[in-house]
Amino acid sequence: MNNEIKDHSHIKGWGVDADKKNDPTYPMQNRIDGPSKYERKSQNQQPVLQEVLHSNERPNVSAVTGLGPEPSGLSGKLRRFAFEHGEGEFSHWIPLILADRINAVEGIVNDIKDGRFPDIIKEKGWPAQWKHDKKGLIKKLAVYGAITVGTIWLLRGKGDK
Amino acid sequence: MLATNYRGKRRIRVDKDAPMPEIRHPQDSIIKVTRTCICGSDLHLYNGNVPDTRIGSVFGHEFVGTVTEIGSEVTNIKVGDHVIVPFNIACGECIFCEQELYASCHESNAQSTALGGIFGYSHIAGGHQGGQAEYVRVPYSNVGPVVIPENMDLDDAVLLTDILPTGYQAAEMGGIQKGDTVVVFGAGPVGIMAAKCAWLFGAGRVIVIDKEEYRLDFVKKYANCEVYNFLSMDDPVRFIKQITDWLGADVCIDAVGAEAAGDALQTITGRKLLLQAGSATALQWAINSVRKGGIVSVVGVYGPTGNLVPIGNVVNKGITIRAGQASVKRLLPRLIKHVQDGIISPKELITHRIPLEEAADAYRMFSEKLDYIIKPVLIPPSVTY
Question: How many domains does chain A have?
C-alpha cells in the first residue's frame, strides 16, 4: 500500500466489504470436488425452430438459444463458413466481420424491396447532434464531403488518362 | 410492439411493428419493459466493432419490467411482479453456474464458448433479443430475475442490472486491502461505480483518470476521489508513478475497454482499422501503472480476437490480472442492501431520460458524449411512472 491508513469515516460504507481473504484465486475456490465434466442436468432443450450456428468447440446447441435474426443471403453463407472454424482462428472472426458489413447492405436492399426507404439521417441520430453540437456535425460533414469530392476527382482524373 | 432495430454501423431504427416475443421454453417469461438503459458496451455494437452483430438485432441488456407471462416451469416469479433482470442469461445448473460464474453459463449461448448468453449483445453472446423494446423474452426465469423490493426507485433498480454490479466486481476483483491505492481508468458509469465501490473494500486512496472534464467533475463529487485528465499529461503512466511514491498503484482497474482514446497507434489499429479487438490503451496503461506484484482488474469490454498489450511487463512485474463479466446474480443481494442502506445511490448517474422512440438520438448523444451525458435511460411510451 502507498498510504498510511487515514480516517475515512466521512465516506459512507468505507471498509464494509473489506475481506482479507479476497485473494486472486477467487472464484476457483468455489470449485466442486471431483473431475470437471460437461453434462446437461435438468435443463430442457428449447425446440430449435430456426437456424442456430453453434461453435465447433462444443458438441451441441445450448439448452436455450436466442431468437435474433437467422443467417441469410450472402452474409449468411459467410457466417456458416465462419462457424466451421474454431473460436481461436482468424478464419472464424474475419468472415463474421465481413458478413456484418455485407449484411448492412443487404438490410438496405431488403428495406427498399419492402417499400421502406431507410431514413439514414434519423437512424444515425444526426438531429440530436445538430441540436447539441452543430459545429461538430458541420465539421464532420465537411470532412466527409471533402473526402468524397477528392476521391471522385482522383477517380475522374485517372479515367481521363 | 415498439423495438430498436440495428441497421448497420451507427444506425439504429425504432420499429413500431416489431413482433411480440413468445414463450419458447418452459422456463421463459415475457417482461414488459419499464426502464432500459444504453450501456457503454452497447456502443461497441453500435460502432460495428463486435463480430456477428446481425441486422435486425434488438440491443439492450440493462432493463427492468413487469412480468406479463410465464412458462410452465417458472416458479420464482409470477405475473405482475416488477423485476430486475440481470444482463447475464444463466441456467443456474451447469458447472460454471454452480461456481457462481453466472456470466459464463454454458447453456445459454451456442455461438461462443467464451461467454454465456447476454441480452441484446450480438450472436457472439447467444443472439438473444434485448430489452430496448416494449417487451422482451427472458430465458431461465427461475434463475435471473429478482423482484424489486418495495420502495426501491426504478432508476436505482435498472442500474442494478449491470452498472453497479460491474463496478462493484471490478473493485472486488482488485483484491483491494485496507489502505490500498486504487487507480480507475475511465469515468464512464462503470468507472464511476468502481471508484465508489473501491472505498467499500477499504481503499486508502482512489484516483480516476479520464479525458472528459464533466465526467471527472461528477466522479470527484460522487465518489470522493482524486481525478486527473490524461490530456494534460505527457505520459499518464509516469504521472501515476510520480503520485504513488514512484512505485505504482496497488490496484489498477480498466473500466474503459475497446473504445479507449489516448494512444494513436491503439486508436488507429483497434478502432479505425479493426486490426485488433478494439483499442487497448486503458489496459496498457493499467498494466504499466500498477506496482510490481499488483493486481489489474479488467471489466472493460474487448472483442474476441486479440489486442496489443505489454504482456512482457505482466510477467516481469509479477502482476495478477483478474477479469470477467459481472456475476450479477451473485452480487445482487449484497448490492440491493447497499442501495437500501443508502451506501450507494445509483440513480444519481442518470443524466438523461429519453423516450424509447428516440433511441437513435440517444445512441448518438451517448456515443459522442453530447450534452454532458453520463447515463441515458430509455422509457417506453406506455410507461407513465
Answer: 2
Is A50 in contact with A68 (CB distance < 8 Å)? no
Quick check: B328 and B86 in contact, CB under 8 A? yes
- Calculate how close chain A gets to B244, using CA atoms only, in Å: 6
Residue numbers in B near A104 (CB within 8 A): 7-9, 11, 55
The predicted complex's ipTM stands at 0.91
Least CB–CB distance from A128: residue in B129, B295, B370: B370
Residue A17 resides in a domain: no
Q: List, for residues A8-54, the tens digit of each pLDDT value.
A: 888 999 999 998 777 655 555 566 676 677 888 778 899 999 999 99
Q: How confident is the model over B168-190, as pLDDT tens digits? A: 999 999 999 999 999 999 999 99
Cβ proximity of B4 and B58 under 8 Å: yes
Is residue B132 helix, strand or coil?
A: coil
Domains and CATH numbers, chain B: 3-162+327-379 (3.90.180.10), 166-323 (3.40.50.720)
**Closest CA–CA distance from residue B234 to any residue of chain A (Å):** 23
Q: Looking at the structure, tell me whether residues A140 and A103 fall in a common domain.
A: no
What residues of A are in contact with residue B322 (Cβ under 8 Å)? 24
Q: Say if A150 falls within a structural domain.
A: yes
Q: Is the dihedral of CA B155, B158, B163, B165 positive or negative?
A: positive
